[in-house]
């Protein structure tokens, strides 16, 4: 009796065509933009919690890169990987949502100061807030579709 074993998760070039895994590239782009926009701000006060935003964006960028290469090279063919995929992306959603809220709060406070010296910083933070919420949405969609794939496996 011949049995066919089906791959648990896609590997190689098929990660560019499977629905949850196609979100890797936009997560790179928008996560990297958050990282660059916040890092390019030169005005940082001691009470400014931008360190958390930077930690979240760098951590998620590195972990997503690691996960991407694990998928690309096919090291994800164990039965535990679908649940790890869902867990990581849910964790990333929680982290990015907390960082996005903090970043939006700081940006609103900067906007109320209305100083010409921090106007460039304000514009960079507005852009970072938008990119951060887009990254949160992408990680959320990846979590939903990964959970559906996990349920099927």
TrEMBL record:
Protein's membrane topology: Multi-pass membrane protein
Main localization category: membrane
Ranges in a coiled coil: none
Membrane spanning stretches: 22-40, 52-74, 86-108, 128-148
Keywords: Lipoprotein, Membrane, Transmembrane, Transmembrane helix
GO cellular component: membrane
Subcellular localization: Membrane
Transmembrane helix listed as a keyword: yes
Ranges for domain MARVEL: 15-151
UniProt superkingdom: Eukaryota
GO biological process: myelination
GO molecular function: structural constituent of myelin sheath
PANTHER family attached to this UniProt entry: MARVEL-CONTAINING POTENTIAL LIPID RAFT-ASSOCIATED PROTEIN, MYELIN AND LYMPHOCYTE PROTEIN
Protein family per UniProt: Belongs to the MAL family.
Protein name from the UniProt record: Myelin and lymphocyte protein
Gene (UniProt): LOC115020064
């Amino acid at each position: 009796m011949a049995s066919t074993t089906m791959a648990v998760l896609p590997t190689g070039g098929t990660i560019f065509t499977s629905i949850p895994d196609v979100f890797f590239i936009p997560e790179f782009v928008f996560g990297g933009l958050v990282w660059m926009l916040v890092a390019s701000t030169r005005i940082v006060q001691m009470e400014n919690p931008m360190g958390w935003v930077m930690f979240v964006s760098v951590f998620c960028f590195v972990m997503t890169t690691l996960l991407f290469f694990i998928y690309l090279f096919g090291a994800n063919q164990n039965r535990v990987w679908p649940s790890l995929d869902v867990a990581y992306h849910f964790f990333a959603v929680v982290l990015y949502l907390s960082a996005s809220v903090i970043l939006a709060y700081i940006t609103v406070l900067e906007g109320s100061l209305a100083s010409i010296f921090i106007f460039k910083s304000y514009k960079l933070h507005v852009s970072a807030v938008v990119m951060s919420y887009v990254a949160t949405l992408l990680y959320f969609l990846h979590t939903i579709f990964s959970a559906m794939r996990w349920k099927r496996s």
